[in-house]
Amino acid sequence: LFSDDDLFSDDSIEEVTNIDVTHDDGDIIFENSEDNNIKVEIYGENREDVELTLKENKLIINYKNRKGGFFNNVYGDIKLYVPSSFYGNINIKNDAGEIKVADFENADFDIDCDAGNVKLGKIKSIKAKCDAGNLKIESISSYCDIKVDAGNLEIKQITLDKNSVIKTDMGNVRIDNAEKIFVEGHVSLGR
Predict the structure, then answer these.
(1) Closest CA to 173 of 154, 147, 188, 160
(2) C-alpha to C-alpha distances, 167 to 36, 97, 119, 147, 161, nearest whole angstrom
(3) For all residues of the chain together, what is the average pLDDT?
(4) Can you say whether residue 176 is alpha, beta or left, with left for phi > 0 and alpha for psi between -120 and 50 degrees?
(5) How far apart are CA 177 and CA 20, in angstroms?
(6) Can you give the pTM of this predicted structure?
């Protein structure tokens, strides 16, 4: 476990408006912090695999396993604790692993996941591209541009104030409760 609590001061945290996380092997987890601080925990074998930077209102985490990862069973996870009131952009790029996100109702997400399931709580908006894996979202309150190549998409609550796109090639789409939207759907294989 690597933790960089000393990277952040109370002043610098309030200025963070963008969080960028790039990972090649392992899970990325966003939890709500119990205070107004951002905390980063990184699990893995080698601290040199991680670049952690706070620059111009942007927190950047880049985790690349240098030991070959996938076939050598070397994985590392990233866990971030962020205030639920975070107002900004969260960009996540994960090659292989799960993405789990708590409720961040004021945040805009941009997610690129090659292989792994994605589970999001209540969010403002999302742009997502998932190549292989299921995408589950508790609620979206503004906008979405979602493309799932091979996997199911499930949204429990959706209210849109902008034109949005939902597309799957091989998988099912399920929206439980939709308000203020017109849906024109197309699924290549699935329902």
Answers:
(1) 154
(2) 36, 22, 17, 5, 18
(3) 87
(4) alpha
(5) 30
(6) 0.88
Higher per-residue confidence, 67 vs 170: 170
pLDDT value of residue 91: 98
> Distance between CA 95 and CA 28 in Å, rounded?
11
Going from the C-alpha of 178 to that of each of 91, 105, 141, 160, 189, the distances in angstroms are 25, 17, 10, 9, 23
Q: Which two tokens stand for residue 47?
A: 């601290």
* C-alpha atoms less than 13 angstroms from C-alpha of 173 in its C-beta half-sphere: 20
Degrees, nearest 5: CA angle 79-80-82: 155
Q: pLDDT tens across 22-74, in order?
A: 999 899 999 999 888 899 998 887 777 889 998 889 999 999 876 654 555 55
Tokens of 12: 């610098």
The C-alpha R_g of the chain, in whole angstroms, comes to 17
What does the chain come to in residues? 191
**Distance (Å, whole) CA 188 – CA 149:** 10
